[in-house]
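To whoever picks this up:

The parser on our side crashed when reading a file containing two proteins. I've narrowed it down to the boundary between the first structure block and the second sequence. Both blocks are reproduced below exactly, byte for byte. First block:
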Amino acid sequence: MMLNKVLVVDDSALIHQMYHLVLARYRCEVVDARNGQEALDILARQEDVQLVLLDINMPVMNGVQFLEKASVLGLTERVPVVIVSTEGKEADTVQGLRLGASGYLTKPFTPSQLHDVIVRVIEAGGAGIEPDEEMALER
């Protein structure tokens, strides 16, 4: 199975641009949310999201609050969530993993680190992803 749709949850426009560039290799649709509440609304409407890349520090609803609500709603069982947090915020990451996140990545990260965590999380869920040939050449 290919990676078709990824939800990126982050309040930084620059981070969204970077994700779009990196994820373009998978030829997947990237859906943007600026906070946890937007992400919950999107997941309620779009059941074909296959992966969530989640920042922790955001306005309105942060990543931990998102995970609390998402786990109660059963969303973390349906869609793997990868926490992407800033160095020095290990406590938030540990709490997020307890709430059902499938993995984590520390900012700043390289495209190959993002690729590695996506592969680990998707393969753990029984699905495989197929990046473009260029990605394999870069690694």
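<<boundary where parser fails>>
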Amino acid sequence: MKKILLYWLPVFLWMGIIFYASSQPYEKQDLRPTLSANLDLTIIETIFSSVELNYAGDEISIQALGAAHFLEFFIRKAAHFITYFVLGFLMYRALKHDLLNNRLTWLIAWFMTVLYAISDEIHQGFTPNRSPHLEDVMIDATGGLIGILLASIIYKKIRTKRI
């Protein structure tokens, strides 16, 4: 029982944090006022004025969004990546103690991480002023994959040191 708590409790707590964050309307997570109040956005405007990309059918540029919203977009996408990086790492860690086959552990950890990312985006579809995006699932899946790869490297080094 202690092993189950030690390895699976962090996974479920992290999933709960993700669920809670996805339950909040955009207005509660809006970083633009904080960014505008604490940063000199003219520097952002100068450096990134020529950057323009499409994301989920929307133009992401200083001209289209303004400097604060432009910067917030990249902070939010980094948060997606980091959040699922941690979930993937924790998922691999938990499964590593339940499964013996390293490939199977790796595959199931990534599958479960991506499945949770999909369910999280669907959940966001029911949250006021939030919308689900396949592109966010792809960022989440990539973050999870890299977290799993890092965890597998760490566990391999630990296993090698024991031998």
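After patching the parser it read the second block fine. Helices lie at 2-23, 26-29, 32-38, 41-48, 62-65, 67-96, 102-124, 134-162. The mean pLDDT is 93.
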